[in-house]
Design goal:
- The protein has helices at 8-17, 32-36, 52-60, and strands at residues 23-26, 44-48.
- The protein is of the alpha+beta class and 70 residues long.
- The longest helix is centred in the first third of the chain and has 10 residues, at 8-17.
- It is globular, with a radius of gyration of 12 Å.
């Protein structure tokens, strides 16, 4: 969840402005506190750091995926 040039700041805004869309976010980094701090948003499920197996299971549940890899 690194901020620079990855669009994650925009994702934070989308979560806030599009309450009709459910977001699932996984990962760790400098924006972790931002995502954890949004726990009151009913449309955000923040998973933190997860295994590849857990990530694959979550991906199968999604209609749309935005993935950022290092």
């Amino acid at each position: 969840l690194e901020a620079s040039n990855r669009g994650l700041e925009s994702l934070l805004g989308l979560i806030k402005s599009h309450q009709n869309i459910d977001f699932v976010v996984a990962g760790d980094g400098e924006l972790r506190n931002e995502f954890e701090g949004m726990s009151t948003y009913h449309n955000l499920k923040y998973l933190g750091t997860i295994s590849h197996e857990e990530a694959f299971k979550e991906l199968l549940k999604c209609d749309w995926i935005y993935a950022v890899y290092v």
